[in-house]
Design goal:
Layout: H1 7-36, H2 44-47, E1 51-61, H3 72-88, E2 93-99, H4 104-120, E3 128-134, E4 144-154, H5 172-175, H6 185-194, H7 212-223
Length: 245
C-alpha cells in the first residue's frame, strides 16, 4: 500500500527550491556589482588607462657665449628630429630662440644652422616657425628649444598613494584584498612609452601586400617537390664545428 504526499507539501518543496536558486543568483549579482561599482576598480587598465593625445616633442640645444654653431651631437639631434617630424609630426616645427641673454648672439648664429639642417632633412620652409622668448633671468644662459606636436600615448601619473597600503581602519581595500591604487601604473606607462605607433593601441594596422616575387618562387619549388627553405651561401662561414650534423 503506497501513500501519496499531500499536494501542499509538494508545492512547499518546489517553492523552497525556487527560493534557494533565487538567493544564489542574487548573491552572485551582488558580488559582481561590488567589484564594478567600487571606489577603486579592480582592473589596473581602468585605474591607469592609456590615453592617446597630442603632445610636444622637444629638444633643447644649449649654446654658449663664445662660439656659435652646433656640435656634432647637436647636429645629429636636429637631423633626427627633422626626419621623425616627417613621419609623426602633426604641426609645424617651432624654434624658440632666447633674446636679451648672454648667449643671445650665438643663439641667433646657431639658428641659421638649425634651419639649414632641418631643410636638408626634408622639412619645407613653411613647416618651420621661429619665435623669440625672454628668459626669466636675463643673467642665465637659455637654450634654443625646438619642438613640434605629435600623437603620443601616455598613462599615469604614477606614484599616487591616496591611502596607506598597510592594514588600518580607514584602508578598506586592504581588508577586501583588492589591488592598491598605484598597482600596474608603471606597466601601463612603460607600454605607452615603448609603443612605436600610438594608434596601434586603438586599431590594428592594415596588412601590407605580399612579396609576390618570392612567393612565386616558393610555390614553384613546392609544386616540384623541392624544399622551400631559403639557403644562404654564407651560412656555413660562421660555423664553429660540425657536431650534430
Amino acid at each position: 500500500m503506497t501513500t501519496k504526499r499531500p499536494v501542499n507539501f509538494q508545492r512547499g518543496l518546489r517553492l523552497a527550491s525556487l527560493l534557494v536558486g533565487a538567493s544564489c543568483v542574487l548573491g552572485a549579482c551582488t558580488h559582481t556589482s561590488e567589484e564594478i561599482t567600487g571606489a577603486i576598480p579592480a582592473d589596473y587598465r581602468q585605474r591607469h588607462p592609456i590615453v592617446v593625445q597630442e603632445a610636444n616633442q622637444t629638444i633643447n640645444v644649449f649654446v654658449g657665449n663664445g662660439r656659435g654653431g652646433l656640435s656634432a651631437s647637436q647636429r645629429a639631434d636636429i637631423v633626427s628630429l627633422g626626419r621623425t617630424w616627417l613621419h609623426e609630426g602633426t604641426g609645424v616645427i617651432v624654434i624658440d630662440v632666447p633674446v636679451h641673454t648672454p648667449n643671445a648672439r650665438t643663439a641667433a648664429d646657431s639658428l641659421r644652422e638649425i634651419k639649414s639642417l632641418l631643410a636638408a632633412s626634408g622639412v619645407p620652409a613653411q613647416g618651420i616657425t621661429v619665435r623669440n622668448f625672454r628668459s626669466p633671468d636675463p643673467q642665465l644662459f637659455a637654450p634654443i628649444r625646438v619642438s613640434y606636436p605629435r600623437i603620443k600615448a601616455d598613462a599615469g601619473p604614477c606614484g599616487v598613494w591616496p591611502e596607506d597600503i598597510g592594514p588600518s581602519i580607514k584602508n578598506k581595500s586592504y581588508l577586501e584584498n583588492t589591488p592598491y591604487w598605484n598597482f600596474g601604473c608603471a606597466t601601463q606607462r612603460n607600454l605607452a612609452a615603448m609603443v612605436d605607433n600610438p594608434t596601434d593601441l586603438v586599431q590594428p594596422r592594415p596588412e601590407t601586400p605580399a612579396y609576390t616575387a618570392r612567393r612565386n618562387i616558393a610555390f614553384e619549388k613546392y609544386r616540384k617537390g623541392m624544399s622551400t627553405a631559403t639557403k644562404y651561401p654564407e651560412s656555413d662561414a660562421a660555423k664553429l664545428s660540425d657536431v650534430g650534423k
